[in-house]
């Protein structure tokens, strides 16, 4: 009888030790920020911390200020967040920030006339027109979601988050190479005016919608 009680106490103690280690987890997922790898830790039943890396690249071909561009939006960011469980369950309110590169790279489609600043130019005059729109390195984030990671006794969980990343107004730079007017001072002045116009046109990227889903594993 004593041996049975000792084994039971040992088993309960081992279970308690194992349970004490289940406040750490890792997760993988996908969303509008691309592929996601995160680590998270439960501080209290209502508060957890998350941090991870995201990478995404997608085509953003469009007309900006009446010029057709082939574009790529590159997101390579590290994120840090605090999740709050107001009801102690799986529902979370989350906030934090994304840090790192957020750039829209643009190359004007050839064979078109260009309305740059207040003037119209041929493709021969402009040559190759490229540009980049750099968003703020630090982008605050707020959102809502559902995270079952630290709910129940299982090792696996599911996470879904939706919200908005505030990337700020873009800083645009345009470059003309190989054109007959590429080095002309008057043309460069019109190009500087076009940069301002383009900044207004790509301003839609300053609030980036975010949706993510992933699987988690609790240690």
Give an account of the 3D structure.
By secondary structure, this protein is of the alpha+beta class. The protein has one domain (24-218): Porin, CATH 2.40.160. It has helices spanning 2-20, 123-126, 185-201; strands spanning 24-31, 34-44, 47-59, 62-64, 67-84, 91-108, 114-116, 119-121, 127-134, 138-147, 156-166, 171-178, 207-218. The chain has an eight-stranded antiparallel barrel with strand order 1-2-3-5-6-10-11-13. A hairpin with a 2-residue loop joins β2 and β3. It starts with a helix and ends with a strand.
Tags for this model:
single chain, 219 residues, alpha+beta, Porin, two-stranded antiparallel ribbon, 3 helices, 13 strands, 58% strand, elongated, disordered N terminus
Q: What is the gist of this entry?
A:
The protein is α+β, with helices and mostly antiparallel strands. It is built from 3 helices and 13 strands; from the N terminus they run αββββββββαββββαβ.
What is the rounded Rg? Answer: 25 Å
Largest sheet: 8 strands, antiparallel, barrel
Query: What is the strand arrangement across the widest sheet?
Result: 1-2-3-5-6-10-11-13
- The quaternary state of the protein chains shown equals single chain
Helical content (DSSP H or I, runs of 4+)? 10-25%
Distance between the termini: 34 Å
Strand content: over 45%
- What would the principal axes of the Cα set say about the shape? elongated
Topology of this protein?
Blueprint: H1 2-20, E1 24-31, E2 34-44, E3 47-59, E4 62-64, E5 67-84, E6 91-108, E7 114-116, E8 119-121, H2 123-126, E9 127-134, E10 138-147, E11 156-166, E12 171-178, H3 185-201, E13 207-218
